[in-house]
């Protein structure tokens, strides 16, 4: 015996048409309200090229210092040398070109004093431009 009447259950229904209509209205609103910038509106100042001869680059003088403090100048091993003697050698290599750049390649284990000796020698030789060579760390 069934005393209860079976309630008829309606399956829920999702109305996609109304959802699509709302999305289209939002899309049209965004399209109308958005301003588009044009590339022609940008004010660019482009560089110009000239036909002048290329400027000469300063001479690079490579000085390597190993862990023991030995100095190598342009592939010529000088050994452990004091700043005054190294300044004389630098004057001979540079000549009258005082715009030369000293590029120091120091070993990671070299003493700080050895690097200072090379910097002092460059100062005594009248050279004011120094750079230090490094290498990128491996990741």
Spans of at least 5 consecutive residues whose pLDDT stays below 50 are none
Radius of gyration: 38 Å
Order of strands across the biggest sheet?
A: 3-2-1-4-5
Name the beta content range: 15-25%
- What's the order of the H and E elements? HEEEHEHE
Number of helices: 3
Characteristic terms for this protein:
139 residues, Nucleotidyltransferase, domain 5, 5 strands, elongated
SSE topology sketch:
Blueprint: H1 16-33, E1 60-65, E2 71-73, E3 76-79, H2 83-94, E4 101-106, H3 112-124, E5 129-132
Parallel strand pairs: 1-4, 4-5
Antiparallel strand pairs: 1-2, 2-3
Helix pairs in contact: 2-3
Quick take:
The protein is α/β, with parallel strands linked by helices. Helices cover 31% and strands 17% of the residues. The protein has a domain at 60-132: 2-Layer Sandwich (Nucleotidyltransferase, domain 5), CATH 3.30.420.
Give your account of this protein's structure.
The chain is elongated. The chain has a domain at 60-132: Nucleotidyltransferase, domain 5. Strands 3-2-1-4-5 form a five-stranded mixed beta sheet, with helices on one face. Helix 2 (83-94) packs across helix 3. The mean pLDDT is 82. It is built from three helices and five strands, in the order αβββαβαβ. A hairpin with a 2-residue loop joins strand 2 and strand 3. The longest helix is centred in the N-terminal third of the chain and has 18 residues, at 16-33. With 139 residues, it is of the alpha/beta class. It has helices at residues 16-33, 83-94, 112-124; strands spanning 60-65, 71-73, 76-79, 101-106, 129-132.
